[in-house]
Structure formats: structure tokens, C-alpha cells
Design brief:
Blueprint: E1 5-7, H1 16-21, H2 24-48, H3 54-72, H4 75-88, E2 114-124, H5 142-152, E3 165-166, E4 175-187, H6 197-201, H7 206-211, E5 218-225, E6 237-247, H8 253-263, E7 266-268, E8 285-295, E9 309-316, H9 323-335, H10 343-348, E10 367-374, H11 383-391, H12 399-405, H13 418-457, H14 490-499, E11 503-505
Parallel strand pairs: 4-10
Antiparallel strand pairs: 1-11, 2-4, 2-5, 3-4, 6-9, 6-10, 7-8, 8-9
Helix pairs in contact: 8-9
């Protein structure tokens, strides 16, 4: 696409000078918009509160009172009231004021601390969470618990000042065995001593400190010191590998493997994802480096009954929204012999099939971010390097030239702790014990039921293990993918959001 698409970033908070330039109609529209947003936030609060959340109810009541007060009081009255409260704060007549030293909590002084830039590797089981990234209406996210632990351990002052990047953003119920973040953490040692062997050995036990605060299904595995302050877990990751686990059931594994070979291209995957054009994503070309269906290791083979476990391992430089789940949905149809493997080639031909057929992605529960690979030298430049380049009219050199300029890599070996790894294994073994007991009990029930069915009726074997993965209603009569109703094309979606002033075409 020759035109460049950009998000129309509307300023959320205007300064007083800009507000004074607005017309009366524009100001009324803005007030209505803010009141609607305020009403929406109150509904979210009320929805999330339980009967036992008395503290939060008091905060919400106070918020509503303050909102009503702001509607009735004049701005000059509010300013006068705030000035009086500031002057009496901490005085003998007002002993309960916020500024009173007895009631004021002692804050950690980060200005006296050193910092170091690191990579941190985490694992988590996502089936109890609403996804990785923080959300306004839910605390059940991985990122919420992660930053809660980082701030409680006084390793960072705030998220905004922590130079934070994440390698991947997993969806609801999706797990990760190798989620990596880059972040600035508090350090015992000044920058010039941080790479000495003694300093690395005697540094703060980041993993042990966080694991004592984090939930048991979110744990830190290792950390890595970085030499460049701009090294990013997001932008310097060169490959991400995901695994999607599934039972064999009645699937034709050979047909699925043949289809995987057709996926290994540098191509347009718009028919294998959920398009988020409204967020400015208009390029759906990805380099899918590898895709294979493999049997799970160390799993008892029950090939005849269809209970043996397999996984799809898929590797690329980056992925689109729901890309793996959409790929898995089509692979399941191929494995059930409802589609031919060549349907992959048809869907990748966006000139012949510009509109995605309507189908439901596979569920997210079996998916996990299995591995991440990083370049040794960052492709990003510090503010000082950018300033020097601007003075000399220089451009950013390619990765090979950066490595030639300074051969010292930014990365280093991961730092593990034996005691922390032992505790981590204990936690994961507890998870395994819990779910293995449930799995064994369910498998026992299935064995008894299947034996009973076979003795009484001698029917064809029931192999419906993969139905759960296909998140949708099972149709009475199957309709081929290429004959189904189609979603809107990419061009139509772009035109729609341009009209809504969400996107700008340059």
C-alpha cells in the first residue's frame, strides 16, 4: 500500500489556553463527553465491587460527593478552600491532616539509589487471568501483579519512570514459559561497578524478592544485566516461538503437518488473524519461519483412543492479533478432513481472496509463549547518539555496522539462582500434582464410560477430544471455508475508520 496510514491521535487533556479558544458548542460537547465517561467509570466500579469491599465503597461514595460538589461550587471557592486546607495541614488544631508526621508513611528515597537496565524472564499460567496487559476495569492481569510486586519490593519508583518494555502481549487465558521484559531496577552498585563479577554475585536477589510477593502461578526465572540503557525486550527480540497443545482425537496429523509446510512463508496473513485496523495496523505481512506439529515428550502413548497429546510449534519475528489461534482453527478443520491442506495456500493468496471467510479462532487456553530470541546488540540509539547524528546529518546505521563499531554485546548470560529454581520447581510441581490428579480422575471416568458403551452397544468409538478447542456451535452440515460469508476487506475497513476520523491517510 503506497499511502501511509496513521492513527488520528486526539489530545485527551487540553490546557486552559486551548480551552478558552473553543466555542460554546465545542465546550458543551466536551462536558457531555466527560460526564458520559465519568458515568461509565462509576458503573465499572459498581460492577467490580463485592459486598465485602467496604473500603472501596467508601472511596466511591467520596468520589461521588466530590463530583456533586464540583458541579455546585465555583472555581474560586474551590481554590480558596484548598488554600485554607494547605495552611492548616499538620497543625495542632488539625492533628489528623495528611501532612502530620505521625500519620505520614515514610517513603523510599529513590534519589539515593543506583539503577541498572536488565532483562527479566518470567513464566505464568494464564488460565486465571484476563490477559497480560493492564486493564482499566480489572486487576486480574499479569502486568498488574508484576508492577504491584515491583513497587512493593521498592525495585522501581513507578511504571512511567522504569523504562519498561515487554516482549509479548498474551491474551486472556494464554500462558507463557518465557515472557521477557526490559526494565530499570534498583541496584546496590554504581554503574561503573555493575558488571564486575563480585557485583553480579552480590546484587539484589531480584527473582527471589519478587517471587515471595508474586502469586505462585506467576514467577520470575532469571535476570540478565544489559549494557545499553535503550535495549528493548520488544524491539530487540528477533524471534518468538509459541506452542499450542491439543489432543490427537480423530485428527489426521499427517494432513496438518503438510498444511504447516505451506504456512512457512513471508506473506500476508490478513486471513489468519483478527484485524485491528482501528489501532493503525494496516500491514499484515509477517515472516513465519517455522511451523510443525509434534508429539508431546514424556506423555504416555494412547494413540488408539486419541488421548495422546501433540502441539503446534510456530516461530516468527512477530505475530498478529489472534494469528496463531486462527491458524490453529484452520489446521483443526484440516485435521478433521473437512478441508484440504491446500486451503492454506488459497487463504494466503490475498489477491484472489482479499476478504477473510467467517470462522471462529481456536480457544486461547492451550497457547503459550514458549521461547524468545534476542539480538546481541540493540538496534536502538540513545538520546546522546541521536543528538550527535542530528548534528552530523547522520542516519541510523544497519545492525551489521553497529556491531562493527562496538563489538561488545549488550546482552550477557542469564543469571540463575539455585535456591530460587528449586522453589520454582516445587511450585510448578504443586500445579502439576493438582491438575494431574484431576486429569487422572477424569480419564478413569472416561475409561469406565467407554467400556460400558462398548459392552452394551458396540458402536463406533467416540473421539470428540478436540471439540472444546473449536470455540463455536457445531453445525449440522459443514460449509467449506472458501464458500462462507466474507468479512470486510482491508481497504473497506481503512475507508470506514478514515470517515470516522480514527485514521489519517497521508
Amino acid at each position: 500500500m503506497s499511502s501511509k496510514i496513521q492513527i488520528n491521535k486526539r489530545v485527551k487533556g487540553l490546557p486552559r489556553e486551548e480551552l478558552e479558544k473553543l466555542s460554546k458548542t465545542e465546550l458543551i460537547d466536551k462536558i457531555i463527553q466527560l460526564e458520559a465517561y465519568n458515568f461509565q467509570l462509576k458503573n465499572i466500579f459498581n460492577k467490580k465491587l463485592d459486598e465485602n469491599d467496604d473500603d472501596l465503597r467508601d472511596e466511591l461514595k467520596e468520589l461521588n460527593q466530590l463530583n456533586d460538589q464540583c458541579k455546585t461550587e465555583k472555581p474560586e471557592d474551590v481554590n480558596k478552600k484548598n488554600a485554607i486546607e494547605d495552611s492548616t495541614e499538620g497543625s495542632p488544631e488539625n492533628p489528623n491532616a495528611v501532612g502530620n508526621k505521625k500519620n505520614k508513611k515514610r517513603e523510599f528515597d529513590f534519589s539515593k539509589c543506583h539503577k541498572r537496565h536488565v532483562l527479566m524472564k518470567f513464566l505464568y499460567f494464564g488460565w486465571d487471568y484476563q490477559g497480560y496487559a493492564c486493564q482499566e476495569d480489572s486487576n486480574a492481569t499479569i502486568e498488574y501483579h508484576l508492577f504491584r510486586a515491583l513497587t512493593r519490593a521498592c525495585l522501581i519508583e513507578s511504571r512511567n519512570s522504569s523504562n519498561y518494555h515487554r516482549c509479548g502481549r498474551t491474551d486472556k487465558e494464554v500462558s507463557a514459559f518465557c515472557q521477557v521484559i526490559s526494565i530499570d531496577l534498583r541496584s546496590k552498585f554504581p554503574p561503573e561497578e555493575q558488571y564486575e563479577e563480585d557485583s553480579l554475585k552480590n546484587e539484589i536477589d531480584y527473582c527471589g524478592l519478587l517471587n515471595r510477593i508474586l502469586p505462585k502461578n506467576i514467577q520470575c526465572i532469571a535476570w540478565m544485566p544489559l549494557r545499553s540503557p535503550v535495549y528493548s525486550a520488544r524491539f530487540d527480540c528477533v524471534a518468538r516461538t509459541y506452542r499450542y497443545y491439543f489432543p490427537k482425537g480423530d485428527l489426521n496429523i499427517e494432513a496438518m503437518q503438510k498444511a504447516c509446510k505451506l504456512l512457512q512463508i513471508h506473506g500476508d496473513f490478513r486471513n489468519f488473524c483478527k484485524m485491528d485496523v482501528h489501532n493503525g495496523v494496516t500491514n499484515y505481512i509477517r515472516n513465519l519461519q517455522a511451523a510443525n506439529v509434534l508429539p508431546c515428550p514424556n506423555v504416555q502413548d494412547e494413540q488408539r483412543q486419541g488421548y495422546s497429546m501433540y502441539f503446534l510449534e510456530i516461530k516468527a519475528n512477530a505475530f498478529l492479533w489472534h494469528q496463531i489461534r486462527c491458524i490453529m482453527a484452520v489446521l483443526l478443520l484440516i485435521g478433521q478432513e473437512k478441508e484440504e491442506p491446500e486451503v492454506i495456500t488459497e487463504l494466503l493468496d490475498v489477491e484472489k481472496n482479499p476478504c477473510k471467510p467467517q470462522y471462529t479462532p481456536a480457544i486461547g487456553l492451550p497457547l503459550n509463549l514458549f521461547n524468545c530470541e534476542f539480538r546481541e546488540k540493540t538496534c536502538r540509539r540513545t538520546d546522546e547518539e541521536l543528538a550527535m547524528a542530528a548534528q552530523t546529518d547522520d542516519i541510523v546505521p544497519p545492525q551489521e555496522e553497529i556491531m562493527d563499531i562496538d563489538s561488545t554485546p549488550d546482552t550477557s548470560p542469564w543469571i540463575y539462582n539455585e535456591e530460587n529454581l528449586q522453589k520454582l520447581i516445587e511450585n510448578v510441581q504443586s500445579e502439576w500434582t493438582q491438575f494431574s490428579i484431576k486429569s487422572t480422575m477424569i480419564r478413569n471416568v472416561l475409561h469406565n464410560l467407554e467400556t460400558l458403551l462398548d459392552e452394551q452397544f458396540k458402536p463406533q468409538a467416540v473421539q470428540s477430544q478436540v471439540l472444546l478447542l473449536q470455540d463455536g456451535v457445531k453445525p449440522r452440515q459443514y460449509q467449506k471455508l472458501l464458500t462462507r460469508k466474507r468479512c470486510e476487506s482491508l481497504e473497506n475497513r481503512i475507508e470506514h475508520f478514515v470517515k470516522k476520523q480514527r485514521l489519517i491517510v497521508n
